[in-house]
Amino acid sequence: MTRTPSIPLLVWLVVVWVALWEQVSPANVASGLVVALVVLTVFPLGDRGSSGRVRPAPAVRFLVYFAWKLVEASAIVAWEVVTPRNRVNEGIVAIPIRGVSDVVITVVANAISLTPGTLTLEARRSPAVLYVHVLHLRDVEEVRREILHLEALAIRAFGPGEMVAALDAEGEQFLAGASEARRWPAGAEEERP
Amino acid sequence: MTAATDVAFAVLAVAAVLCTVRLVRGSSLADRIVALDALLVVIVSGIAVHAARTGEGTYLDVLVVIALLGFVGTTTVARFIEHRGP
Amino acid sequence: MGDVIAAALILAGVALSLLAGIGLQRFPDVFARMHAATKPATLGLILVLAGAGLRVGDRGDVAKLVLAAALQFVTAPVAMHMVGRAAYRAGTELSPATTVDELGESGDAPPGPVDGAAEAQR
């Protein structure tokens, strides 16, 4: 696969390189550029169906929502650890997401994994389904709703433009209703990483 | 600051002991790798607390290296578990 | 003032590490332990790194602390996903507290270890 390396990735690698050298000097930036180019050429990223770009305002909204969830969930799990009564009710929930691009799926799956109390066990690309392990399972539908909301925020922040337009037109229900039929594929063999 | 970091070191020591107990008791390989991961985080925290106490960053390189090696190690063992079973 | 904030951040961070240690002892199976252990510990580490960042003077040192925090944020969920997936695929027993397993029911779950490693062993 011959693609021109993506610029943000290149910049990130150069920043890491310079940070490790502790000093912003022309020589450090130049050597960082060389190393980053070599790395990106030798290990190209397979990127399917992206065409998304970062929109600053929705991205901030996503991050704020995510940070709030993080604090809330941390408090709940911390409380669970220190109180003697055991209310753990575990479960693995299938969550059919909209799956509009690899970037969005990755962002959502990682956000779920970073939040205490939920953990992405498996991810399927098409049909897009996340299997999430939940520590305090009360209402399966509520878990699905919350993660679909998180995904909607992620699409607005990082997703393809036409998906954002569809979200605006149809609201949170966009593609969420189709999920029931798509949940369990009949014999659809899925490529695994 | 010294008093605060004293407390911090003591708390980290207890956390490290708890992680080590799980590491030894395990029961499954996945348990052990989770415990080891938590232990590495405790070690990295310890280095950061030391840097905060003394105000010097000599060991911060070690911190970055341990954080990265922890990831590589965890991922490697995860692949191993997947192929070999718990 | 900066020192007070730094001390508060560090103490909050190590408290989360301690919670992780306790969680490792208390929870019934490997998935629950992952919830309790690695994630609070990661958040705790971010707090400690922030506290240390307020204390070290050198700009290069701050850069390294920021780098470590950023790498932690990127690598921690990936590592957890890998361990969780491997543990599930390898057939780790779920605790009796598990009430729902839609991955197992879906028929979508890979049957144990991949690449025929399990078959080779039998």
List keywords for this structure.
heterotrimer, B: 86 residues, 3 helices, 0% strand, C: 122 residues, mainly alpha, 5 helices, 75% helix, 3% strand, elongated, disordered C terminus
Give a structural overview.
The complex is a heterotrimer of chains A (193), B (86) and C (122). Chain A has 193 residues and is mostly helical. Helices cover 54% and strands 10% of the residues of chain A. In chain A, helix 3 runs antiparallel to helix 5. The C terminus of chain A is likely disordered. Chain B is flat, with a radius of gyration of 15 Å. In chain B, helix 2 runs antiparallel to helix 3. The N and C termini of chain C lie far apart (64 Å). Strand 1 of chain A pairs parallel with strand 1 of chain C, so a sheet runs across the interface.
User: Approximately how much beta-strand content do the residues of chain C carry?
Assistant: under 5%
Helical fraction of chain C equals over 70%
Termini separation of chain A: 17 Å
What structural category do the secondary elements of chain A indicate?
Answer: mainly alpha
Shape of chain C: elongated
Radius of gyration of chain A, whole Å: 20 Å
Strand content of chain A: 5-15%
How many DSSP-defined strands of chain C?
Answer: 1
Q: What characterizes the major β-sheet of chain A?
A: 3 strands, antiparallel
- Overall spatial form of chain A: globular
- N- and C-termini, Cα separation of chain C: 64 Å
Which sequence of SSEs, written as H and E, runs from N to C of chain A?
HHHEHEEHHH
Mean pLDDT of chain A comes to 76
Number of helices of chain A: 7
- Low-pLDDT residue intervals, each spanning 5 or more residues of chain C: 111-122
Uncertain spans of chain A: 177-193
Percent range of helical residues of chain A: 40-55%
Q: Which chain pair has the greatest contact?
A: B-C, 54 and 61 residues
How many extended strands of chain A? 3
Order of helices and strands of chain C: HHHEHH
